[in-house]
Amino acid sequence: MVGESAAAAVVVLRDLTVSYRQHPALHHISGRFEAGSLTAVVGPNGSGKSTLLKSIMGLVPVEGGRSGGALKVAPSPRRIAYLPQLAEIDRCFPIDVRDCVLLGCWSAAGVWGGIGRSMLARVDSALEAVGLQGFARRPIASLSSGQLQRVLFARLMVQDAELILLDEPFNAIDAQTTAALLALVRRWHQERRTVIAVLHDDAQVRQHFPATLLLARELVAWGPTSDVLTEPCLQRARTMAEAWDDNAELCGIDAAQVLDPARR
Q1: 226 CB neighbour count, 10 Å cutoff
Q2: Alpha helix segments (H runs only) across 135-222
């Protein structure tokens, strides 16, 4: 959320520009996400919402760099948790629920670190918190979309991150699961973690997210949700989306060259 104190900012954007196939995906975005804020990122399809999260994660190149230029991220990569869209998850990967959640302990255990009783206890506690007691040995390929999303939220819990990025976390899951996961998001907010979530449901945003960033490749509005999700702002975003030109002037930084996370 845009604020006064740079010292309290977890993520700062300064004229951030990102492109795919040399066409703008994000253009001249400036503002900051304050520590402990809970922000929804909304906008028309193709407006750069997912690109913003991937930029913060260091998965796409940005014009000006990530160290105080166009994008400054205060937490170290070990203190950032990222949940991609369900469609990007390989559900055929041969791993069970417990081991999937244990991946959230990677930053603490490292490549050669052992998995102790305390970590296993954290996994059990997280699975209980998302309502999946008794699922530890189930392969993830056998889960429904809602159950898999609960597993991924449990992994976020054991990761214990300072900054949490969620890309369409409630898409294609049932209402009961959505309510349970929204309760976890509120809990993270109460714990003063910074949460940024890409969402499509305006009613959901109004009810649960105090701050909103509205994108249409460019910044439309950023601030308290009641000030952003107004008909004039939404209409402006729709108008900007309708005016997008795939033959627009090319940009030099091409985010189609997605970076390997190991190179961050």
Answers
A1: 10
A2: 145-159, 175-190, 202-208
